[in-house]
Amino acid sequence: MNEHMNLTERAIDMRVFFDRKADGYDDVHRSFMETKTALTEALPDGTRRVLDLGGGTGLELFPLFERFPDAVVTVIDVSEKMLDALRRRPFADRVRPVPGDFFEVDFDSDYDAVISTSALHHFEPDDKLILWRKIYGCLRPGGLFLNADKISADRQAETDAFAFYRKNKGSENYPHIDTPLAPSTEVRLLEDAGFRNVTVTLTDRDNYRLFRGEK
Ligand SMILES: C[S@@+](CC[C@H](N)C(=O)[O-])C[C@H]1O[C@@H](n2cnc3c(N)ncnc32)[C@H](O)[C@@H]1O
Q: Is the CB of residue 14 below 6 angstroms from any atom belonging to ligand 1?
């Protein structure tokens, strides 16, 4: 039994939501390619073993495999339909899709990098810290965590986002009411999880940042 029932509930809602969205997903999310490409550019030469959290249909893996054709990428995603689209990609033989909730699935170890794009802006800070520690634990020494994700502009906007989420819990679209954290909260949690030299970079979008931490 998961001690964080709110997370289990949220993951199930996510699966239902993204199973429904999978067919038209790429048409909407291709507009984020600049951010996804920036993430690949931030990876060091020689990157090979990669874990992608919430990799979905694998859009961020196009630039990644262009730069690192020999990479091997494990993709954990709760939506089987999103993973079905990933399985049809030209680089599918370099990818290992793992269906499941990234709070529940065991991670392998010794990754060169853990990456994620647009997938981690739905969690309370305490829950995020659990995930950040799990990510830290699966990296090799010197490995990198790169997360390109939505942010709240500041702490007040973060508080407001969670208040809005709670108020609308149960409404039709609530699983996808975003609760992004402020950059200062993200940095604190990354440092609390053990990451060093944490940096925050502006992407092509005002409400997105690329967070980078080293083990
Ligand atoms: C907005 S999509 C991003 C997909 C891809 N990374 C991209 O940038 O195009 C978010 C993905 O995260 C997955 N996801 C959300 N919560 C999850 C969880 N708790 N465990 C595993 N996957 C999750 C969803 O199923 C979905 O495929």
A: yes
Assign residue 50 the CATH number of its domain.
Answer: 3.40.50.150
Of ligand 1's listed atoms, the one at least distance from the Cα of 29 is 9
| Residue numbers of the domain that contains 37 | 5-214
For ligand 1, whether the C-beta of 37 sits within 6 Å is no
Ligand 1 pocket member 118 (CB < 6 A): yes
Give the number of domains in the chain. 1
Question: Does 65 sit in the ligand 1 pocket, CB within 6 Å?
Answer: no
pLDDT digit string (tens) for the chain, length 215 residues: 345 557 787 888 889 889 998 898 888 888 888 999 999 999 999 999 999 999 999 999 999 999 999 999 999 999 999 999 999 999 999 999 999 999 999 999 999 999 999 999 999 999 999 999 999 999 999 999 999 999 999 999 999 999 999 899 878 777 778 999 999 999 999 999 999 999 999 887 889 999 999 99
**Ramachandran region, residue 186 (left: φ > 0; alpha: ψ -120 to 50; beta: rest):** alpha
Quick check: 200 and 182 in contact, CB under 8 A? no
